[in-house]
Design brief:
By secondary structure, the chain is an alpha+beta fold. The protein folds into two domains: 2-172, Ribosomal Protein S5, domain 2 (2-Layer Sandwich), CATH 3.30.230; 180-300, 2-Layer Sandwich (Alpha-Beta Plaits). Helices cover 35% and strands 27% of the residues. The strands form two sheets. Strands 1, 2, 3, 4, 5, 6, 7 and 8 form an eight-stranded mixed sheet that branches. A four-stranded antiparallel sheet has the order 10-11-9-12, with helices on both faces. The chain is globular, with a radius of gyration of 20 Å.
């Protein structure tokens, strides 16, 4: 008998970087995610299979069940990372080790893994569901980060997310812009390294308290703004504030200076997706620039349920 688990992907609409230091963030779960199927097997090993959105196997490995050392694999670097994740999962649930049976794990993404929609966070949350352990704890023991991506994995509505004294506070919010048909997500053709992006943020010198307060205020405004023009203005203010703190030129100035709408970076600057305000001409504009992955708000963001 097999057990099945699923976790939503994520997009951080506001408070990138600031969420690490307690800023209030607006995040949305995506229609894309990752599933995990787990079966017990007679052999005392862990068999692992990872499949892409086409159902094709892109990674395989076998681990021993005692020390989680790789027995065979298609990718040594990934196996080393997975060894650590499995060891961390089993250490949070010691009774999982008290068995002579092994497990076969099959993880399947519904989006290309270079999109940055949470291939790691959805995996962590699925494993936590299976092991019945705290997903935030497992995240901190493996990848680290603010944890907003775990909150998106677990929620089917937009959320406000904030670290209060280091603990995650998650609140479902109503965020369903009446102008959502004028919002698009564009993939910048490269995956951002989250650790490098965070490291750069940590090296900057700025007034953290003021920055967090300003970002949190913009999150509230962006969440509740009913007018399209004002929404775009707040996105632009957010982009300018982060640009000043990071010492990085906003993506619109770098790549799309002639674009007629507002463009806001999402997550680590320099890669993954951006959010653009626009109209029916928006997809053509970005595709003409060589950015072929343009997804409408309705196709990207999980509908309220």
């Amino acid at each position: 008998m097999s057990a099945h688990f699923y976790s939503n992907g994520k997009l951080l609409l506001t408070a990138e970087y600031g969420v690490l230091d307690g800023a209030l963030a607006l995040a949305v779960p995506t229609t894309f995610g990752q599933s995990l199927t787990v079966e017990k097997i007679d052999e005392s090993v862990i068999e692992w299979i990872s499949r892409n959105e086409q159902g094709e196997t892109w990674f395989e490995a076998h681990f021993d069940l005692t020390h989680f050392k790789t027995l065979k694999t298609s990718d040594a670097a990934l196996s080393n990372r997975l060894e650590h994740i499995l060891k961390s999962t089993f250490s949070l649930k010691p009774d999982l080790n008290h068995t002579t049976q092994g497990y076969c794990f099959a993880a399947t993404l519904t989006f290309p893994r270079n999109w940055g929609l949470g291939s790691s966070s959805t995996l962590i949350n699925n494993l936590a569901q299976w092991a019945k352990v705290n997903a935030y704890t497992l995240l901190q023991n493996t990848f680290g980060g603010s944890g907003y991506d775990i909150a998106c994995a677990q929620n089917n509505r937009p959320i406000h997310y904030q670290l209060v004294q280091g603990n995650p506070v998650v609140e479902s919010v109503f965020f369903d812009p009446i102008f959502k048909e004028q919002l698009y997500f564009i993939y910048l053709n490269k995956k951002q390294n989250s650790r490098e992006a965070i490291s750069n943020y940590r090296q900057q010198d700025f007034d953290t308290e003021t920055f967090i307060a300003e970002i949190s205020e913009l999150t509230l405004k962006i969440t509740s703004e009913p007018h399209f023009e004002a929404f775009g203005k707040y996105l632009k203010q957010h982009e300018e504030l982060l640009s000043e703190v990071l010492g990085v030129t906003p993506v619109k100035e770098q790549l799309f200076p002639d674009y007629f709408g507002t463009i806001k970076s999402l997550g680590g600057w320099g890669g993954d997706f951006v959010l653009a305000t626009g109209d029916k001409k928006t997809p053509d504009y970005f595709k003409a620039k060589g950015f072929d992955v343009v997804i409408s708000y309705q196709d990207m963001v999980l509908e309220h349920s």
